[in-house]
Amino acid sequence: MSTPPAERVWEVFRQEDEGDPMVHAGNVNAPDAELALHYAREFYGRRGESHRLWIVPRDEITELDDPDLLKPPFDRSHKKPGGYIIKHKLEAAKQRALAETGE
Amino acid sequence: MTVTPDLDIETREALAELVLSVADDEFVIGFWDSEWTGIAPMLEEDVATSSIAQDEIGHAKALYELLGELTGEDADQIAFGRDTDGYRHAALLNHRRGDWAFSVARRYLYETADAVRLGALAHSAHEPLALLTGKMRREETYHLLHAEAWLRRLGDAPGDARARFANAIRDLWADAQDVFAPLAGEEVLVRSGMLPTPMRALHADWQARVRPALEPIAGPLPAAAPSLDGRERRSDDFAWLHSEFTSVARAEERATW
Description:
The complex is a heterodimer. By secondary structure, chain A is α+β, with helices and mostly antiparallel strands. Chain A is built from three helices and three strands. Chain A is flat and about 70 Å long. Chain A starts with 7 loop residues before the first strand and ends with a helix. Chain B has a single domain, classed as Ferritin, core subunit, four-helix bundle (Ferritin). In chain B, helix 2 packs antiparallel against helix 5 (127-156) and helix 4 packs antiparallel against helix 5 (127-156). The model of chain B has no long low-confidence stretch (mean pLDDT 95). Classes of the chains: A alpha+beta, B mainly alpha. The interface between A and B is medium-sized, with 17 and 18 residues.
């Protein structure tokens, strides 16, 4: 028996409706992009559940999982929006805009 | 059950014969290819092949229902209630699944022929048939792409795979012509625009399309034409398949679920 063609893993992302975010659906094994497309369609679209698929070879994804970059050891709380209440400022801005256009 | 009223008997019978031939083709290839479920060359291909086989059964169901509107019969009864002699699938579909190369060769031959046929039927003067085949075409486009993808792979494969594929093409070539076997009422159908192009012309279109794809793999293929009994010959292989796909219907007659 001859050896089968080398397979690649293809990550599949699906969109349920136009405008929805692309969400990771899973992956398929396939020797090339053409069959990857067919298999992705059968695995993640055959029941009419997808509006669009992205099929990406896993080995072409640039991955970042370095904890020094993603979870640095210093305090990051000043980069989060917590503690800064914007609600009242928004309300005031809205009233101002209303008053201006109302005249 | 509504019976299409505005057709004379001659036209209705001819149309029923046409719809039955397409339905039986889809039904039988659907069952043959579903024989790969669980044992296809890889998991992904297993799912793809099984899903395509299911699509074909779905097309057959819709066509049997359309036929029921013409004849007043029940779709399940048409599908499962006939003896082997009553089926009108093309001789191409008389053969058991064989190895993977054989199934791919058959699917390529069938999908290409079906595409040519659907291209004509989508413009049928019988509107329900035009609508249904137009819808089928959208799904069959993918089936054809899938079959073409495998044709190239096996055609370019080293050694044994390519040889098996070439043999399968040569073995099936004569029977493949019979997808275009003449129908009993074809003259009426062509005259009324129900079949916009005669089978003879569709056959020529199909050959012109597949020869350039197949001959580099299988070598020169002989001149071949559809045979008069191309939809009437039955085989032991089909008798076996028939006993399989009717087994549930026979076990509990008129059961519902």
